[in-house]
Write a structure and sequence with these properties.
This protein is mainly α. It has helices at residues 7-25, 30-34, 44-66, 83-94, 99-118, 122-126, 139-146, 148-169. The radius of gyration is 17 Å and the shape is globular.
């Protein structure tokens, strides 16, 4: 699927990828969602918390920019070259949260980001440089990255996790 370039495409891709992610989560047990993967040390629960954290960051950037201020993107402490450290900090912040709390936030954050996008004009979303802090890119690109593209990444992480789990359960001769 091509990268969304309109508000309608963004909302559609976001909904489609979120529904596919929800479908991937449906059959999973609590143990499967909370089991730590050996390779990444993250559980599926951690991936869901990560998604919500990034959705909230992009909403925060937008709200700060809307008020005429320049948000610290991606954060006060990190630049784009330091994403692994930022993601580790997000993981540390949310890893002790219960599955119930993470799932609640996952659903609330999705609804909030969807509502936020619906309230932004097409021009504000997809005019390059519309906000000084986005430089030559578009606000819509930030939302695509933190929604539909991120949901797709999460589904791949779930597949890897389940494949790894099946391999671990397979008897060795």
């Amino acid at each position: 699927m091509p990268r969304p370039a309109t508000k309608k495409q963004l909302l559609s891709a976001m909904q489609m990828e979120h529904e596919a992610l929800e479908k991937a989560l449906e059959p999973l047990t609590e143990r499967q969602i909370t089991a730590i993967r050996r390779t990444t040390k993250w559980s599926i629960k951690d991936v869901l918390a990560h998604l919500s954290a990034w959705e909230q960051m992009v909403i925060g950037w937008y709200e700060t920019g809307r008020k005429g201020r320049t948000p610290a993107v991606p954060s006060e402490k990190y630049n784009w070259g330091q994403l692994p450290a930022l993601n580790k900090e997000i993981y540390e912040k949310y890893r002790a949260r219960s599955l119930k709390a993470v799932l609640r936030r996952f659903h609330e954050s999705y609804a909030e980001v969807q509502k936020t996008i619906k309230g932004i004009s097409e021009a504000d979303l997809f005019t390059p440089g519309r906000y000084s802090w986005t430089k030559t890119t578009t606000l819509g690109s930030y939302f695509v990255s933190c929604t539909s593209s991120h949901y797709n990444w999460a589904r791949k992480e779930i597949r890897k996790s389940l494949k790894q789990e099946r391999r671990a359960d397979t008897p060795r001769c």
